[in-house]
Amino acid sequence: MLVSLLIVPLIGSLLLLLIPENNRKNEEKMKVIALSTSLVNLFISILLWIQFDSSVSDYQFILEFNELSFCHLNIGVDGISLYYVLLTTFITPIALLSNYKNIYKNLKYFLISFLILETLQIALFVVLDLFLFYIFFESVLPILFIIIIVYGSGVNRIRSALLFFLYTLAGSLFMLLAILQIYSYVGSTDFQFISLNEISLESQKILWLAFFLAFAVKTPLWPLTGWLYRAHADSPLAGSILLAGTILKFATYGYIRVLINLLPDASHYFGPLVQTIAVVTLIYSSLATIIQQDTKSLIAYSSIAHMSVVILGLFSNSIQGIEGAILLSLAHGFVSPALFICVGGIIYERTGTRIIHYMRGLVTFMPVFTILFFIFTLANTGIPLSLNFLGEQLSLIGIWNKSPIIAALGGLVLYFLLVILYIYIIDCHMDYILLIWKPIQDISRLEFNLLIALLIPTILLGIFPNVILDSLHLSVSTLLYNI
After folding, report:
1. Residue 266: which residues within 8 A CB-CB, separation 6 or more?
2. How many CB atoms are located within 10 Å of the residue 46 CB?
3. Residue 344 lies in a domain
4. Could you give the dihedral angle defined by the CA atoms of residues 308, 309, 310 and 315, in that order, rounded to the nearest 10 degrees?
């Protein structure tokens, strides 16, 4: 079944290549093929979820190919990677639909790019080999680089794409060196084989710093945040959705699968450093949010703040903290794409601007949109009954048991950020009209369905979190290390 998840998008890509891109009818056919392919993959991932046995902590649906001498092509899922696979298959059709009606140039290659990205992302979450993890971690870079340049809307999109590419590539080079060093230590890059071998604390420290630098860029953590808001501002809407929904989860998954799982002693040793960097990032992103006038940049900085809380939960060495971090990362994968659809899609297409002060009075013309935008804003601020609330609370409770001062500081700064977000976005809905606007159409049925599709899991999983937590308990408990 895992093989099907990897192959189906590639089959869809091959079908798209066979269709000539020369008329309107063929373009509609290509859209249908791409969307159908992504929906089939979503259906397969749901079947995978149904068949997953949450009573064991081992990897399941394992497929092995050990004919290669330099790496083991093994794939499998556990209770942690399962939900990132589900998130990827859920976000991909939404990303395709978000630009369903406004991509005309090179449509075929736009659709193929996102189907290939789906395969690469799923592969990252299911491979059980450290070298293959690095390959798939980096494999999305050239495709996203091209997407931002070719299909982006910003005047500085080439610079933004270069920053995104160079930041991530430079950080990941240290990860490659660390992987080669691990291979020299244990003679393998297989996750399970490495976990059975002991690495000295001094060696773990060096390896940990190399991996941490790569993941800190992708998170991103201060002072490596400069690429994210630029990439969001200048990429197409589908690119922003994918970047916020799944690409930023690469680092979260890397912290869990590599640092905490394979290098536990170094993770404990560098715990105070990570907590300090996370809080500094949280303060920095909160202050940076105040001065933002572009709504995409504002949401990008709020994403940095939320990912900082995820880091606090991950390095709490507690079941509550790690599970809260996973919940918050999944919630961010629902809410942040929805906000990008609101500001980078719906509002921008109607007004031609993302400047906050030019959006006042939209509630007069767009009442349905305003209600949905308001709900997602509240969810992003961590209102109770949303998945964001549970993720933030569990993350902060987890870190409280280890460092009450860090937890209190993180909670206060996060509250400050959320108040700013609330005030800024509600300011767009004030009931008076700037004279430059003519009557604007409310959201279409497609836009409404996209937002509802993201709202349903945000609320339902916030009310019934055990749907996820029951499958996480055993896998998370194996990550805890003795102090």
Report:
1. 201, 204, 205, 207, 208, 259
2. 13
3. yes
4. 90
Question: Phi and psi at residue 355, in whole multiples of 5°?
Answer: -75, 130
Among 329, 308, 338, smallest CA distance to 387 is for 329
Q: How far apart are alpha carbons 320 and 232 in whole angstroms?
A: 31
pLDDT tens sequence across 418-445: 666 555 555 554 444 443 556 677 788 8
Closest CA to 476 of 250, 269, 255: 255
- Domain residues for 37? 2-477
* Residue 76 CB contacts under 8 Å (≥ 6 apart), including other chains: 2, 59, 60, 61, 62, 63, 126, 128
Distance CA 62, CA 474 (A): 18
Question: Which of 136, 227, 212, 219 minimizes the C-alpha distance to 174?
Answer: 212
Tokens in use for 321? 């903290």
pLDDT of residue 452: 92
pTM of full prediction above 0.85: yes
* Burial group, residue 322, by CB count within 10 angstroms (0-12, 13-18, 19+): buried
Residues 50, 30: Cα–Cα separation, whole Å: 31
Are the C-beta atoms of residues 171 and 217 closer than 8 Å to each other?
yes
The conformation of residue 357, written as its DSSP 8-state character, comes to: G
pLDDT given at position 423? 58
pLDDT tens-digit map of 98-133: 887 777 777 788 888 889 999 999 999 998 888 888
How many structural domains does the chain have? 1
- In the chain, the amino acid numbered 135 is I
Check if the beta carbon of residue 448 is closer than 8 Å to that of residue 230: no
Q: What percent of the chain has pLDDT over 90?
A: 8
230: left (phi over 0), alpha (psi -120 to 50) or beta: alpha
According to DSSP, the residues that pair with 294 across neighbouring strands are: 355
Averaged pLDDT, 454-483: 82
- The answer to whether residue 163 is domain-embedded is yes
User: What's the CA gap between 299 and 337, in Å, rounded?
Assistant: 10
Output the CA–CA distances (angstroms, integers) from residue 228 to 90, 121, 167, 233, 295, in the order listed. Answer: 22, 19, 10, 9, 14
Number of C-alpha atoms within 13 angstroms, CB side, residue 399? 29
Q: Is residue 483 part of a domain?
A: no
Q: Which residues have C-beta within 8 Å of that of residue 41, sequence separation ≥ 6?
A: 5, 8, 9, 89, 92, 118
For residue 482, being part of any structural domain is answered with no
